[in-house]
Amino acid sequence: MTPPADDDPAAGQARALLRAATRYSGARCLALCLVSVAATGAGLLLPTALGRALDLLLAHAPATRWVLCCAGLVLLLGLLDAVQTVLTGTVDARTTAWLRRTLTGHVLGVGPRAADRFGSGDLVARLVGSAAEAGTTPAARAALVAALAGPVGGVIALGLIDWWLTAVFLAGAPVLALLLRAVSRDTAESATRYQRAQGRIAAALAEAVEGVRTVRAAGTERREAARVLRPLPELSRAGHRMWRVQGRAAARAVAVAPLLHLAVVAVAGVLLTRERLSVGEVLAASRYAVLATGVGVLVGRLAGLARARAAARRLGEVETEPATAYGARPLPDGPGRLELRGVTARRGGRTVLDGVDLDVPGGTTLAVVGRSGSGKSLLAALAGRLADPDAGEVLLDGVPLRELPHDALRGAVGYAFARPALLGGTVGQAIGLGLPSPSPARVRQAARTALADDFVRRLPGGYDTPVADAPRSGGESQRLGLARAFAHGGRLLILDDALSSLDTVTERQISDALFGDGRPDTTRLLVAHRGTTAARADAVAWLDGGRVRAVGRHEELWRFAEYRAVFGDGAGPDGTGADADADADVDDGGVRAVPDARGGGSGRKGVGADAGDGTLT
């Protein structure tokens, strides 16, 4: 059941969104309203002109002027109708475009939280379908003014002809009012259910398309199609209910409106026999009764507004997810020291990271390792503020990330991911994404560092090849993602499993560039799954159960069986082979606590889980 609008933040956001959208096309909405009202006014004048011309013709009096007036009104109605159609289409298109731009910017401003809450498929359905439906609201409201002006003007015109006609019509008006109210309420509820079912289908379809290779490999095409289309019965029920609501409304209108019309005509006939009305006035009264009982037009307008309001509420739900707020504190010069202080992060009601303390001195390389689900990728997201912790703080060179301006933060932190999204028109633009004015030399140097230059040059257009026309393997895509991170620069480089799809030779060569450039002003945080990567880092942060179990050199942590289990039994302390001398860590079925020891070594800077002292915890 939909909560009351006063207690529904989504409804409030929807109203604010529609008000802003209406202001965006305010001039056109006003013009549409005026044209619609003018068309209604012309329609109200036409019965009077027809009646007057008829009376003059029956009296054999000159009626040329009134006949020409009728012809002029008919031509004016045709012209106004054409202008109204053009304005309606223009306002709908402008409003829909504005809503899509606004919501797209908001979704990107919210970041990954939006996809986590709604799902990528449902978000697309809202930004495409719901925005188009909600975009009809300003024009529909303007048209509704004219639709209401017709019946109101018809009632007034009946009163000007004779007050008895208005009295007869108003006797049945409450029935029409109740009918319209029921149509609006029931249509809104049905439209909400219909659009929600559409969103679930879109979300399931997006998942299936993303995993189409897995579906084909498993041979589960039919099962997956059934899963995607599972909400169809609910969609069908909601759609049928919507049409039944409008059908019942039309049926009641057919029953009520003709009775009112007949009553008005009957009373007009009685008044004609008493010579209180002329034949022309009876004709005019008959036409005005039709206008006054124009429930069909109102039902259609109200149903359209109800569907648009339901769609706008779905957009309002997206708006209730707050966009990431940035500060105004400048980022001082520094080597890129990264600190996590008491960081706790929850996802789906589960605490993924629990009170994490970590200090990464500037210019060092920290590998983050742990079993699947230990929170490695979430920690990487928090480190560059792709997500915010539920508690605690993340600092860069002593400044909390929340207090940094957007441009300063994004300029200081570079990212590479396991499955990079290559955005931009060409391969060169994809590598230079995010740079104010990327030079070709900088793009090519980054590609060479990531060992991507050779295969990019073999593409039909080299760096000018459109991304969509650049066939590439998973490893080549990952190298382009690494090239983008290298081109970005910055004082903090975060690699979230960005070497996972590379062959061992390529990984070794890129690691040489990554670990061997000796830049003291760049700090590196690597989510690592391979022992070879962890072994080359200055220090390793071992995540276990949402906490930092230990921080130290890879060869020091290798003494512990649970740490070795993270990489499997086949790797040694250097990541290349089994370690026959590894000590057992199991005592009475439990793992021993990691003893205190000093990390660091080989002249490298220490990385600590507590104030950067390099202590194993």
Descriptive terms for the model:
22 helices; 617 residues; four-stranded antiparallel beta sheet; disordered C terminus; disordered N terminus
Strand order of the largest sheet: 6-7-8-3-9-10
The chain-level mean pLDDT equals 80
The fraction of residues in strands falls at 5-15%
Helix content: 55-70%
Tell me the major beta sheet: 6 strands, mixed
Explain what this protein looks like in three dimensions.
- The protein is of the alpha/beta class.
- The protein has 22 helices and twelve strands.
- Strands 6-7-8-3-9-10 form a six-stranded mixed β-sheet.
- Strand 11 (586-587) and strand 12 (590-591) form a beta hairpin.
- The chain is elongated.
- The protein starts with 8 loop residues before the first helix and ends in a 26-residue tail after the last strand.
- Mean pLDDT is 80; it is low at 1-5, 578-605 and 610-617.
Please summarize what this structure is.
The protein has 617 residues and is of the alpha/beta class. The protein has 22 helices and 12 strands.
Task: Describe how the helices and strands are arranged.
Elements: H1 9-24, H2 26-58, H3 64-110, H4 112-118, H5 120-134, H6 137-161, H7 163-210, H8 212-218, H9 221-228, H10 232-273, H11 279-292, H12 295-319, E1 338-347, E2 350-360, E3 365-370, H13 376-383, E4 391-396, E5 399-400, H14 406-412, E6 413-417, H15 427-431, H16 440-449, H17 453-457, H18 474-488, E7 492-496, H19 504-516, E8 523-527, H20 531-536, E9 539-544, E10 547-552, H21 554-557, H22 561-567, E11 586-587, E12 590-591
Parallel strand pairs: 3-8, 3-9, 6-7, 7-8
Antiparallel strand pairs: 1-2, 1-4, 4-5, 9-10, 11-12
Helix pairs in contact: 1-3, 1-12, 2-3, 2-6, 2-11, 3-5, 3-6, 4-5, 5-7, 5-12, 6-7, 6-11, 6-12, 7-9, 7-10, 7-12, 10-11, 10-12, 16-18
